[in-house]
Design brief:
This protein has about 110 residues and is mostly beta strands. The chain contains 1 helix and 8 strands, in the order βαβββββββ. The radius of gyration is 14 Å and the shape is globular.
């Protein structure tokens, strides 16, 4: 799918998730394949937290060895976007903020 919605548990959102007024944190995963001229398989994940408290959000898995990079964090305008964030792990999303992650480029092994 070109666009997927995720719960804070890192799973695709279900009807129960969408209808639960207490679930105020969710992610939108966009695959680059959604754009016709781009077919590299890169992904962008926007996590929205409307809750009054930080939420632990499990980042979706990526292909073997894949990592995420924070591209935008409304709590840290001057963040270093190149610091890798492991896929499949929990990441704290501050209260009432948006954090955008992009799929990190593959890292070549050191010789």
């Amino acid at each position: 799918a070109d666009l997927q919605w995720f719960s804070a548990a890192g799973q695709p959102k279900s009807n129960v998730d969408w209808n639960n007024p207490h679930n105020k944190c969710f992610g939108m995963l966009l695959n680059e394949g959604a754009m016709e001229e781009k077919k590299t398989g890169k992904r962008l994940l926007a996590v929205f937290n409307a809750a009054a408290n930080p939420v632990s959000f499990k980042l979706p898995e990526l292909p073997v060895g894949g990592e995420w990079e924070r591209a935008l964090d409304t709590s840290e305008p001057s963040l270093d976007p190149k610091q890798p964030v492991p896929a499949g792990k929990d990441h704290q999303i501050p209260a009432r903020l948006v954090v955008v992650f992009t799929q990190a480029p593959e890292r070549k092994p050191s010789p």
